[in-house]
Amino acid sequence: MTNIPIYIERGELKKTPVSGFQDEQAVQIYEVLRIVDSKLLFFSDHYARFCHSCALLQIPVRVNEVEFKRQLRLLIQANKLINANVKVELNILSDKSELFRMYVVPHQYPTAEQYRWGVAVGLLHAERQNPQAKVAQHSVREKANQAIARNNWYEVLLVDHNQCITEGSRSNVFFIRDGVFYTAKAEQVLGGITRKYIIECINRLGFGYVEAPIRVSELAQYDAAFISGTSPKVLPIAQIEEHAYQLDNKPLRQLMADFDRFIEESLH
What we know:
Elements: E1 6-9, E2 12-15, E3 27-36, E4 39-40, H1 43-56, H2 65-79, E5 84-92, E6 98-105, H3 112-117, E7 119-125, H4 138-151, E8 155-159, E9 164-168, E10 172-177, E11 180-183, H5 193-205, E12 208-211, E13 214-215, E14 224-229, E15 233-240, E16 243-244, H6 250-266
Parallel strand pairs: 7-8, 7-15, 11-12
Antiparallel strand pairs: 1-2, 1-6, 3-4, 3-5, 5-6, 8-9, 9-13, 10-11, 10-14, 14-15, 15-16
Helix pairs in contact: 5-6
C-alpha cells in the first residue's frame, strides 16, 4: 500500500507492507488526515466524524480522542513524516472482530500549474449508499478510478438518479455564479471537513452561499467551479466534459487565498 516503513495496527508499531485480509463482508470506516510540516490538520474534526460514522452504523468507538492522537503522533515520529496523508481505518470483519490501524497512503497534491490553470473533471452516474458516513464503498471507487484513468481526468463528479451532481468521488464540489457559491445539500453528501471550513471562509468573505440541487442540464449557467478535499484544498475546475469555466474568477481566487491562510492558522 505504501513504501513508508512503519504502520500501526491495534496500537502497535509494525513494519510494512500493511497486512491484508480477505473478507468480502467486512465493513470499513475510515478517515484520511493530512500532515503538514509534521502537524495534524483538522484533527478534532476528523475524530468527531470518525465517531459520527461509527454511530450511524451502530458500532462502538473503542479508541478515545487522546489515544487516537497519540497513535497518529507516534506514526509521524516513527516515519519522520513532514507532509503526508495518513489513513485511519476501523475494519469490522464478518466474525464481528475489529481491526483498527493507521498507515501512510500515497497522495497526489495538485501542482502550482493545476492551481493556476485548473483541472479537467468528468461525470459519473453513481450514488453512495450512505453519503454521510465515511465508509468504504469499493464499487463506486473502482468505477471512478476507471473513468478517471480512461479519460485522463483529475476527478469525476457523481450524478444521482435525479440527474443532479452531489459530490466528487473523493472530494466535494462547489459552483460560482454572480459572486454566489452553490453546492449540493448537506444531507446528500459526505460532510467533508474541508467543505465545512470553506463554507466558513465564504461567509467570512461576505459572499452568498446556497445549498441547492446542481443539475447537469444547468452546468453552463455557472461562471466558475472547484473541488475541495484533504489533498486538493480548493482546486479550480477548468472543464467539466464540454463545459469550460473561468479560472481568474475573483471570488474563487479570494477564497483560495483565504483558505490557505486559514490552514496555516489551524495546524496542531
